[in-house]
Amino acid sequence: MGAGTILSKADAQAAKNAGSQFLVSPASTPKLLQAMLDTGLPLAPGVSTPSEIAMALEMGLTELKFFPANLSGGSPMLNALSGIFQQVRFCPTGGISQQNLSGHLALKNAFVVGGSWVSPVKAVADQDRTLITELSRQATTVALLLKQAA
Q1: What string of H, E and C letters represents the secondary structure of the chain?
Q2: Among 79, 83, 96, 118, which is least packed, fewest CB within 10 Å?
Q3: What is the pTM of this model?
């Protein structure tokens, strides 16, 4: 179990104290990255520009959240970044849907994809486990088909 939307040192420490096993942030600043690193937990800080990626690399981080993926160029941007930042792998989130999932999962520099389409707000509020299960099954099927094709 991990914690997302880490925005401060206090958030990072509270998440660790609550038992989080990893941290995810939507952004990267030197202070935020250091606070997350200080917890000793695995992390995926949010980046959307080459400068943010380079800063994370300078701090020894190679697994990053690409956010907001769709607004930041989506899979074409990640593909372009793959030639420059060959050692970095991304978790694209933000604007990912069933329709563009396969394009992101097919990227060699994407290690996982995240998105709220598998748990729509109304389905969560209504505790519609059938819909959430079906949307998750559809996403898993796409991932498995891509893996088999590789």
Answers
A1: CCECCCCCHHHHHHHHHCCCCCEECCCCCHHHHHHHHHCCCCEECEECCHHHHHHHHHCCCCEEEECCCCCCCHHHHHHHHHHHCCCCEEEECCCCCCCCHHHHHCCCCECCCCCHHHCCHHHHHCCCHHHHHHHHHHHHHHHHHHHHHC
A2: 83
A3: 0.90
